[in-house]
C-alpha cells in the first residue's frame, strides 16, 4: 500500500478564485452546447465528424455527437454524461437536455456576477424543475388508447415529431409507419433485442420495409446454389457454435511419418472428422444450419447437395434471436447434436435484396421483427439506423406511459408562462432566480426559430403574449414561419422525455455550479 506522502494533488485548471473558476467551467460547457445547438428542430443541420484517422460520420443525432466529443475541461464532461443518461433512459431528447443545461449555466453567469451564491441558485433551480415536472403532468393528455386506429395515429404523430429533425425528415411518414407497426406487433412484451435492423446498400430510403421474422445476410454463395431449393415450409433449424471447416494449424506443428501410407492415414483422418460431424448433423433431418463459427466450402457443398441452407459466422445477437424465435438450443459440441435440440419456424426462404442474398426465417414462435433499410450510401444507412432507434424509443415510451404533450416549443412556453405567474408570490432574489429558470426553458423554441431562419425575438414575444393570456398549445410552425396550435396539428411528444430532460439538465447545471476547483489525486512517481 502506498504512503500518503507519495501522492499529491494536481490542479487541472487555471489558478482562479472560486467564482472565477465556476465562470470558467460555465464558459467551457457553453462551447459544447453551441456545437450541437444547430441540430435541434425540423430545420436542423448535420455534422460531418472525423472520429478516427480514416473514419467519418454524418449525423445530427445529439447522443452520437456527444459520445464523440472529447473535451479538455473535465467539468464539461458532465454534459456528455447527462446526454448519455437521457439517451439510455428515454432514447431521445439529448440535444434538448444539453441546450437547457447550457442556458441555465449561461443565465447563472449573470446571477453570479450579481453576487448571488451558487448554492442559492441551485436551490431555486431544483425547485423550478420540480414545479415544471408537476406542470407537465397536470397539462399532459392521455388520449384514448382503446381505439387501435386512433392509437396508431397518435403513435405516428409522436414518431414523426421525433424524426422531423433528422436526416430522414422528408421520409418521416414512411419510417413512422414502419416503426409504429413494429412496436404494435411487439405489444406490451416489448423486447428491443428482438428488433433487428439490416442495411442493404442500393435503392432509395422509401424502399425500406419490415418483416415479421428474422433475416440474415448470406455469407457467400456456393457452387450449384441456383439449383438448390430456396424455400422450405416448417423446417427444422440447428444452431451451432462449432467450426465446420478444414484449415491449417494456427501454430507451427510437426508430424513424424514413417511411410506414405501413414501420411495418407493422417490426411484421411482429417477428412473423416469433418465428415463425421456433417453426417451427425444430416441425421437430424434439419433444413437449416447456422453457426457462430466458420462453415467452409466442403461443408457448404455437402449441405447444398442435401438442400440444406447454411450460414457461418452469424453474429451472437442474430443467433440469440433465432434461438428465441424458433426454440432451437445453442449447441457447442457435436456430441450434443440431435433432433431434440433443433427448432422450427413456419417458412425458411433465401432470396436476393439488391445485390445481396438474405435468409428469411418467418413464422417464428415469438415476436421477432427485422427492419430492412435501403439507401444510396453507407453513411446514409448508418444515420437512418440511428434515427430509427430514436423513433422506436419514443413510441415505446408513449405505449408505456400513455401521456403526451405538444411539441414545437409549446410545452416549454406553457411551463415558462406558468412559472412567471407562480413567481409573483415570491420575493427577493428567489424571484429573480426562478425568472431565469423560466427564461432558460425558452431556449428550445428560440433555437427552433433560429435554426429555421425565423425572427426569434418577434415570435417568442408573440408566444409569451398568447400563453400569458390563455391556456393554449401554441408553438412554432417553422415551414410557414408562423405560430400554430401544435397539439391540434399532432406535434406530440412523450411526457417522460420532457420531464427527464428538464430534471437531468437542472441536476447537471447545479452540479457544475457547485464545482469551484478541479484536482487530480495521482501517484507522484507517474
From TrEMBL:
Locations listed in the record: Cytoplasm
Source species of the chain: Hemiselmis andersenii
Keyword hit for Cytoplasm: yes
Keywords: ATP-binding, Chaperone, Cytoplasm, Nucleomorph, Nucleotide-binding
Gene Ontology molecular function, alphabetical: ATP binding; ATP hydrolysis activity; ATP-dependent protein folding chaperone; unfolded protein binding
Family: Belongs to the TCP-1 chaperonin family.
Matching SUPFAM superfamilies: GroEL apical domain-like, GroEL equatorial domain-like, GroEL-intermediate domain like
Gene3D superfamilies, per database record: GroEL, GroEL-like equatorial domain, TCP-1-like chaperonin intermediate domain
Main location: cytoplasm
GO CC field: chaperonin-containing T-complex
Name of the protein this chain belongs to: CCT-eta
Taxon lineage: Eukaryota, Cryptophyceae, Cryptomonadales, Hemiselmidaceae, Hemiselmis
Keyword Acetylation applies: no
Bilayer-crossing regions: none
Highest rank taxon of the organism: Eukaryota
InterPro entries: Chaperone_TCP-1, Chaperonin_TCP-1_CS, Cpn60/GroEL/TCP-1, GroEL-like_apical_dom_sf, GROEL-like_equatorial_sf, TCP-1-like_intermed_sf
